[in-house]
Amino acid sequence: MFNKIWAGLILVSLVFALYYDGRDLAADTYRNGQPLAVEIVPKVGMLNPVASKQDVLVRIDSVAVAQHYGTSVALDAEGYDGVLVRSEDGQLQLRFAKDASLPEPLKTIVAVTSPREKDLRGTVEWLPTSAATGDSAATASDELGLAYKAGEPAQLTFAPVRFVKLQAITKAAFDFAETAVTVALGLIGVLALWLGLLRIAETSGVLTSLVRYTGPIIRPLFPGIPKDHPALGLIILNMTANMLGLGNAATPLGIKAMEAMQTLNDNPEEATDDQVMFLAINTASVQLVPPVLLIAIIGLEVNKLIFPILIVTGLSLVVAIVAVKLFGKMRRFQREPVPPPAAVVEYPDASA
Questions:
Q1: Does residue 138 have a pLDDT over 50?
Q2: What is the torsion angle, in degrees rounded to the nearest 10, for the CA atoms of residue 56, residue 57, residue 58 and residue 61?
């Protein structure tokens, strides 16, 4: 069932992504291949067209950008820091400062065309100008015969931007896959440690003693679990770990407790009332000691929150238990009895 839901969500997201990407392509939202007029001013000295790298200040007119992209934008009137880079083949590339505060759609262009460096970049061209201006001090020409004058508008062309939404979905899928692997690898050591300690406690009889002394307190909440069953000990250990704020320790104990209760389940396709109760108590997240993560974020000031934490977790526990008991009595949420297996009728062999 869950696989079908995930497949449906992925299919719907792809359909929406293709729809919006198709709309962007039809409207030419990012003006692919169309140059944007900018003003490039050197920070030191004059603009040198033959320099391999030169720090510059880039000024962009808000009105021109609004007309170019067909949307209102808010740009820095003082300009943006950038670097004018000349490649070996003579092509000029303008690179804005990393993480520059840019409005949409320039921010999306950065995310698509430069996801690692996170800087806006594009090729720069100046239109041929008349060399007969007489302003030899402010004008310099390269071997291509193009005049570059400081403060003269230039043409900045960005790399093509297409299928933005589809790329975002693909990137999110790979990012979450990487996160899942990281979390799984990080839990291996924790699971191995606590499952090993649990095995030692079970073999040495500590788990049996724990069930014997604490069973009368826990058993009323889990009437379907027989007396001295290992599931009760696992439930107690899980609750203890949660109360002490040891979330990593509570996870493997909770999994083992569910597995132990599943051995008592006559219908593996549906959870028993005891399993539902255990899940509700875990969801209530009973805490007696503040979690380690909360202490790391807030510091020792978290001690002032101990009483609110106790009140909230206590109320959530009561609500969880009452909700399970009430829903368990409703006919709509009750488990259907599993019919006994049909008796096998043996017929005599006709050939005999």
A1: no
A2: -150
